[in-house]
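Open question from group meeting: does this chain pack into something compact, or does most of it stay loose? Before anyone orders reagents, we agreed to write out a predicted structure and look at it together. Recording both the input and the output here so the notebook holds the full record.
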Amino acid sequence: MSTEPSLTPSSISSIPSHLKMTLLEILSRYEGKGRKGILISSNSLANKFIHLQWNIRPTQRRQYRNLFLAVREECRSIFQYYINNREVIYQEHGTDYKFRVYKFDEVRGNLILGFVYIDPNSL
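Structure tokens returned:
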């Protein structure tokens, strides 16, 4: 049995940048197609973060139970913060990306947020 990686404060602080990367990646795929809303769940963000950070797949959740629990809890608290603020603004390559945030659903603690891109040219 392998030992679980530790969740350090620096790794926790990089979770929002993974969310930013995910939002901007999805937004770029739908550029010019009229799609504005993006749904992301806290568990899917946690799974993606764990895979990118430690190369651990969601199918290994039982083996790394404590790590998955801790990261999912952190993702839920970050999502709760975004729900309370109602918007997120990212800067990338001199461009501001503004998203309205709303709670889409919550299923057994898994928060699903809707991020709606606000195009500055449409205002």
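Observations to bring back to the group:
The helical segments are 9-13, 15-29, 42-54, 65-85.
The chain has one domain: 9-118.
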